[in-house]
Specification:
The chain is an alpha+beta fold. Among the domains are: 141-210, ACT domain (Alpha-Beta Plaits, 2-Layer Sandwich); 329-593, no CATH class. The protein is 58% helix and 10% strand. It has 20 helices and 14 strands. Strands 2, 3, 4, 9, 10 and 11 form a six-stranded antiparallel sheet that branches. Strands 6-7-5-8 form a four-stranded antiparallel sheet, sandwiched between helices.
Length: 615
């Protein structure tokens, strides 16, 4: 569990024409990373695919909105060779596009007409009584033009009105409107003024609309006309969509798009394969170390393929897998933040599953606030994996809240099972120091474990083993100075060990500087854990300040409001600060003792963008 496991090498011999089916079945397992046996391999997709795939992407950019939904696009159960498949798909799409282009144009015109009618429907409904009402719009003559300008949200509707000609004596008559938060401007004026306004509003990313010719002086007639036109457009759009559906069936568009999407996925994710005229080797690594998942996937697949698990090729570097129990897996986030541990490095995830909640809970010790954080983490646990850390941290905070006797910052509702932080601040500061020293000692032990896995235990016994003794001796000397003798003896042993390894006395003298540097560094790392106690005191102090403000209020409602708002501030602010401090202590104080993160992470082949196959 502490040591990452290498992924297992697999090899599949498949008929070349069935390779796409095999790759699709493997990708669905989420347990496969491809790697060619020869290292470079042979390009999986011939160069002829590139221009054809570019044509497919052009079709997609133009017609995607008019194709059947991708969720119902079903690829062929027995695909052909990629080049033949893509040629067939492009020929089908070209034929469909030729037949569908008039229908698509009609749909686009209809949608534009619906948008324009809906716009004027909203404008007429929002138009207040004033100088610009429907009767005047309908009677606008050749000298007086009327335009509707739509400005970007947040723009000043009055800003563009100062044009040169308007300021010279030809004022613009305007009516500002706010429709669904978007500023509109209905403006009447001479054509040159309106053209200047159109340029200015265009520079603001706005739009200009001419008053439609069907507009009448009677508002009721206008409403009836808009309703009739919208109904007519809806019927026309339904007929056009039915025509598109019929064309999709006639050209078998669902299968064509399924095949094209499958090939697009193949081109993006499968770069090389070892192929021959009739057969191909699909090789790589799998996280399914037992092999059952891969065997079942191939058994359910109609492709002709044989699965084998030989030894990996000479010189191949296996990706690594973290093998932690389910309760510890959310804490793999910390190890992956620094990089994947190598095969000779310890994975501290199970230890972090204990240490991280303890640090978070100590700094955020409150029963009510902790349970609230746990509830938030539980609610979002499926959407955001990091929320599971918040859930565990909140539960730990509620436990420390019982130890500190704090419920939403109130002391006295529950008896403190241990102490009140502000009553014994020195204890609150020293406890994390002791915990930090223990954690750093464990980090040095994990480093020794890594050295053992690398087969370099002799060097560690002659050098870094003495560093642990120096560190523990210095810590113990705060309670009994006789432990300084152990630290001094260990320091001498450290220098002599370097002299033995270097086979010269000067190597031992040079090691003195290394010993001083490493000792000072780990002592400073230990001192950094005092911030855990400091933030616990800060949390208690902030809670006490909120309670003091609440007690100073005269009205019960004000007291409740102060308590609620104060706890909201504490939860938001402290949760963020405490999370940052916990992460910092783990990454920069603990991990630096033993981890470099030079391992190769397992990167599975992503699944294809479809879920159904024809039978």
């Amino acid at each position: 569990m502490l040591r990452p496991n290498p992924a297992r090498w697999f090899e599949i011999l498949a008929a070349r024409d069935d390779a796409t089916l095999v790759l699709e079945a493997l990708a669905r397992t989420g347990a496969v990373e491809l790697e060619a046996r020869s290292g470079a391999g042979i390009p999986a997709n011939p160069v002829e695919l590139a221009p054809l795939m570019a044509r497919f992407l052009d079709h997609a950019a133009r017609y995607r909105d008019y194709w059947p939904a991708e969720s119902i696009c079903r690829p062929s159960a027995f695909p052909e060779a990629p080049l033949a498949t893509l040629q067939r798909c492009i020929a089908t799409l070209d034929a469909w596009a030729q037949d569908a282009e008039p229908v698509v144009h009609a749909l686009q015109r209809g949608r534009a007409g619906r948008r324009e009618l809906a716009r004027w429907q909203r404008v007429l409904a929002a138009l207040p009584p004033g100088p610009l009402h429907p009767a005047q719009l309908a009677s606008a003559g050749p000298l007086l033009q009327v335009r509707l300008f739509v400005l970007p949200a947040g723009s000043d509707p009055g800003l563009p009105l100062s044009t040169d000609s308007a300021s010279a004596g030809a004022p613009l008559l305007s009516s500002p409107l706010d429709i669904d938060g978007v500023p509109h401007l209905l403006v009447a004026g001479q054509s040159e003024d309106l053209e200047a306004m159109e340029q200015r509003i265009g520079s603001l990313k706005g739009s200009s609309h001419v008053v439609p010719g069907w507009l009448q002086a009677d508002a009721g007639i206008n409403r009836a006309h808009i309703e009739r036109e919208l109904l007519a457009l809806e019927r026309d759009q339904a007929q056009r969509q039915a025509q598109l559906d019929d064309l999709a069936r006639r050209h078998d568009l669902t299968r064509t798009l399924g095949d094209a999407n499958r090939l697009q996925w193949l081109v993006r994710n499968v770069q090389t394969l070892d192929t021959g005229p009739l057969l191909c080797w699909i090789t790589g690594w799998t996280s399914d170390t037992a092999g059952d998942t891969l065997a079942q996937a191939l058994q359910a697949c109609p492709a002709r393929a044989l699965l084998h698990f030989p030894s990996p090729p000479a010189g191949a570097s296996a990706p690594l897998l973290l093998t932690n129990p389910p309760w510890a897996r959310p804490f793999e986030l910390f190890s992956r933040a620094l990089g994947m541990p190598s095969a000779s490095e310890a994975d501290p995830t199970p230890l972090l599953a204990i240490v991280v909640p303890l640090m978070f809970g100590f700094m955020f010790g409150d029963v009510g606030q902790g349970l609230l954080l746990a509830a938030i983490g539980w609610w979002y646990r499926q959407r955001f994996p990091i929320a599971r850390l918040l859930m565990v941290g909140g539960l730990a905070a509620s436990v420390f809240g019982l130890l500190f006797g704090s419920v939403f910052g109130l002391h006295g509702l529950l008896p403190a099972l241990w102490l009140h932080p502000l009553d014994e601040p020195l204890t609150v500061l020293l406890a994390p120091l002791a915990g930090g020293a223990l954690l750093l000692t464990l980090g040095l032990g994990l480093d020794a474990l890594s050295v053992w896995w690398r087969g370099d235990l002799r060097r560690w016994l002659l050098t870094d083993a003495a560093l642990i003794a120096v560190y523990l001796g210095l810590l113990a000397s705060f309670f009994d100075t006789t432990w300084l003798a152990l630290a001094a003896a260990a320091a001498l042993y450290f220098c002599l060990g370097h002299a033995v390894l270097g086979r010269r006395l000067t190597a031992g003298l040079a090691a003195m500087g290394e010993l001083v540097e490493k000792t000072l560094q780990i002592l400073i790392n230990t001192l950094s854990f005092a911030r855990v106690g400091a933030f616990a005191l800060a949390h208690a102090g902030l809670s006490s300040a909120i309670v003091a403000l609440m007690d100073a209020a005269d009205h019960l409602l004000v007291k409740a409001l102060v308590l609620v708002l104060g706890n909201a501030v504490v939860i938001v602010l402290e949760a963020m600060v405490v999370s940052i401090q916990t992460t910092r202590l783990v990454l920069f104080e603990f991990f630096t003792r033993f981890m470099q993160g030079q391992g190769r992470a397992f990167n599975p082949l992503p699944p294809p963008p479809f879920t159904y196959q024809e039978n």
